[in-house]
Design brief:
The chain has helices spanning 11-19, 26-34, 38-55, 119-126, 129-136, 140-161, and strands spanning 2-8, 67-70, 76-79, 86-92, 95-101, 106-112, 172-178, 185-191, 202-207, 213-220, 230-233. It is an alpha+beta fold and 240 residues long. The strands form four sheets. It has a four-stranded mixed beta sheet, with helices on one face. A three-stranded antiparallel beta sheet has the order 6-10-9. Strands 2-3 form a two-stranded antiparallel sheet.
Length: 240
């Protein structure tokens, strides 16, 4: 199971989240109120309200009753079951992504592709030589898109491993090719054995909502996941 829940973040959805802010626990409420910018505050609020409401779709539990534990690197896990239910969240300007999955390690990352970024400078720090070549061999108009594809794949894998940026970014890499159908990209993955001895046990997905964001998912699995294993959903907030 890989259920990707997407929630656009705009003025209307923020107002909706404010009406449901009572589902947050004390720690989340304090964090929400500490944000100094309206944008960061809105993203946090929508992300955490949506996460709680989404999880209650999978278990008969009041959204306010979910408890979470954040490990040494900040990845939240559900405390007190239900067994086999896990999640991962990501948010960026205009979008929240909540990935609900089973026991296997999974991660999700979402980015918007129109943000001004020093693509060359960042690429030298976070991408392998081959990844950089795959970006800068493209026409300039396509380079930002490839940059964010690779960036979200890197982030998703890091989050799935649960070790944050302690993972050396130069020790794993991705290739992206066009499938025969021209629809979903073919994503290749290579990894230093010291980092993960079984790279073939990982599968990656990318999704592009109409908003122009790019979302990537990393999923550790023992058997191949097909298209029916991966679904994209939206919470019925009544406002979007």
């Amino acid at each position: 199971m890989l259920d990707l829940w997407l929630q656009p973040v705009d003025e209307t959805s923020v107002k909706w989240a404010e009406t449901h802010s009572s589902v947050l626990d004390e720690e989340e409420t304090q964090r929400w109120r500490r944000y100094r910018t309206d944008e960061s505050s809105a993203l946090f609020l929508v992300a955490h309200v949506v996460t709680r409401l989404v999880l209650s779709r999978y278990d008969d539990r009041d959204p306010a009753m979910w408890q979470f534990d954040r490990g040494a690197n900040g990845r939240p896990e559900i405390v007190g079951g239900p067994f086999g239910l896990r999640f991962n969240i990501s948010h960026t300007e205009g979008m929240v992504a909540v990935l609900v999955h089973g026991q296997a390690d999974c991660g999700v990352d979402v980015e918007h592709t129109w943000r001004a970024t020093d693509i060359r400078g960042v690429s030298r720090r976070v991408f392998t030589d081959a990844e950089q070549d795959s970006i800068f061999s493209l026409p300039s108009a396509q380079q930002a898109d490839r940059f964010y594809q690779l960036w979200t794949l890197k982030e998703a894998f890091i989050k799935a491993k649960g070790k944050g940026f302690a993972l050396p970014l130069s020790k794993f890499s991705f290739t992206i090719a066009t499938s025969k159908s021209g629809a979903e990209p073919l994503i290749g993955f290579a990894c230093d054995p010291a980092l993960d001895s079984e790279p073939n046990d990982w599968q990656f997905f990318t999704h592009r909502p109409e908003s122009g964001h790019v979302v990537s998912i990393a999923a550790h699995r023992r058997t191949e996941l097909d298209d029916s294993s991966f679904t994209v959903r939206r919470l019925d907030t009544g406002v979007v």
